[in-house]
Amino acid sequence: MSLLRPTIAAAKLLLVLTVILGIGYPAVVLAIGRLAPGRADGSLISVQGKVVGSALLGQAVTDPRLFQGRPSASDASGATSGGSNLGPGDVRLAAAVSEREATLRAANPNATGPIPADALTASSSGLDPHISPAYAAWQLPRIAAATALPMADLETMVGEHTAYPALGFIGNATVNVTELNAALAARLDR
Amino acid sequence: MSPLLQTVLALATVGVIVAVLGYPLATWLHRVFTDERHWRVERAIYRIVGVDPNTEQRWSVYAISVVAFGVVSVVALWLLILVQGWLPWSFGRSQTWHGALNTAISFTTNTNWQSYAGEAGAGHTVQMLGLTVQNFVSAATGLAVAIALVRGLARAGADRVGNFWVDLTRGSVRVLLPIATVAALLLILGGVIQNLNAPSVVQTLTGGPQTIPGGPVASQEAIKMLGTNGGGFFNANSAHPFENPNAWTNLLEIVLVLLIPFALTRTYGLMVGDRRQGRLVAAVMAVLFAGAALLTTWSETAASTLATGSMEGKEERFGIAWSALFGTATTATSTGAVNSMHESYSPLGGGMLMLNMMLGEVSPGGVGTGLYGMLVLAIITVFIAGLMVGRTPELLGKTVGRKEITYAALASIIMPTLVLTGTAISLLLPSARAAMLADGPHGLSEMLYAFSSAGNNNGSAFAGLSADQPWLNLSLGAVMFLARFGIIVLTLALAGALASQLRRPVTAGTMPTHTPIFGVLLVGIVLLLAGLTFFPSLALGPLAEALS
């Protein structure tokens, strides 16, 4: 039995399917994307006309007046993505957690209650834009002190950027830190 | 709400959606693969390719066609990745020759193991012309082989099992392409990006730089999930907010991976003219799947040993339940995508995800591969049951004789042999051990997970392993290729042997294969085969870690 014929047929079919599935299909989806350009281009957010990031991507925050996001294995650089991949019994994970704990305690002297788990653990993507409502609330005393904004205003702002799971179980309750910080930064600039 | 209750509700939701969408899809699949007519675009394709779509092939010619298409695909994709520096939208991204070969085999075999990081290893051209195309055709290949095996059961006294070129074309054009297009649209509405932008750097709110990636992600993501492929556009895979931005896209992606594998069980019932057979297979798959999802969630909550819970390596928007369900869906279906880092799971949780793969990808398994894997196990089950009660083993009136059981047994032994041999050799090699992030039992799990992933054409990873080195690239590549095409050739041989048989009439002595008792037997055989093969290595890895 000749192997040449099926090999030539395979090569030709791969070529034809590459045109349909590798060029035609992505092109159609690109065209569809132009119907919702804001989303297809990355849900970018601007402050005073300048793009400052994406509503979907967490950022490294150094300003004590803004909310901290979750720890990131890549410092939220965006050039790469991923988690720490440290196993639950890994001493390096325990060390990282206690270091984060110490840093957070030092930066938030007025915070009350235990530090929420999402504040101490690196996300999967390194770009998680969300924190738990508990972690947002835990940071409020620091932010109120650093910004001199009334606590009630801050609580309202957090509430505006908190999303709850549909039907109570599709997803998790989250606060979008990037959007919240953009709103907070705009307020502080005024 | 407790994560366990959340998982129960999530399972129910996913179950209802997959059932509602899978029912008409199964009917459609049945029509696609029994249709006498060709679409105009298909006739044009056959003319260009130079094949006669109305001539069916013997199993051996069918198998040669599958392997030829696989080999041509590997070579073409390998070359494409190697020359990507000269192509547009490559942004200086590249892979080593052995990394590129690993990637080429990986995407061609529907494994989608990635020793490269998407952000550094694949530009937009390779993503579209290479990886997206293989996401389609590798899934369509699995679909074709499953249909050929079902034809073997459905036909009697026949020497042909179908035409691979026709099955591959129809699977791509009539099934995968339309669903993927709709899914991509929904993903864009959910926030998944779709553009050809180069990565751009912006000044963030506090002034630091951040790279905003671009790319044709939605088109890739849709077929990556639908085709149970799993290779991420980005290194973080479906954990990256640009691949999977919220709870709804996460739900959609879970539904996409489960849709075709479950729908195919009904297509099987329709094609053999006995819908109860399909329902039995679906029920067995569903029981194994739901059990795994619940056990993983439980491991991540009740059995978690950390004060910080199990949130290391998980995204806040998914939480524990939707991460565990996604992990179960992608390891039980040969998808291998992740929305959380499996290496950071609790010992038993990570062990469960590994076990999903070790079952041989049958709960419900990949597109096509799940059905043919489960039918091979059903043949082994009727054989063992036949031995126990002293009757001639048969499935749907086809005798499981010397030839049939030999093919089935060989098909089910290839994977464990490759996984255990590959793991053992790699653990002995200092160069491979140096790639491990962890040591002790967790390190063993890391290596075992990698070879289980390759040997089952899954592609999921304990991502701490720095697999981009010559030995691991080449050995994992060899394991992926041999497991994929070894099992396919044996499955097609089985199809040929079954098709040639005449159908024996049902008698009082026939053991029915649609009853709950057969379902229990089949579940037992699935668990027993994997348990006997892998218990020693699981004991040294995840179990030892959980107990220490």
Description:
Chain B: The system is composed of three essential subunits: KdpA, KdpB and KdpC. The complex is a heterodimer of chains A (about 190) and B (about 550). With about 190 residues, chain A is mainly α. Chain A contains seven helices and five strands. Chain B has 18 helices and four strands. Chain B has a domain at about 370-545. Chain B has about 550 residues and is mostly helical. The longest helix of chain B is centred in the N-terminal third of the chain and has 32 residues, at about 5-35. Classes of the chains: A mainly alpha (about 190), B mainly alpha (about 550). At the A-B interface, helix 1, strand 2, helix 4, strand 3 and helix 7 of A face helix 1, helix 2, helix 3, helix 6 and helix 7 of B.
Give the CA-CA distance, first to last residue of chain A.
80 Å
How does the major sheet of chain A shape up? Answer: 3 strands, antiparallel
How many beta-strand runs of chain B?
4
Unreliable spans of chain A: none
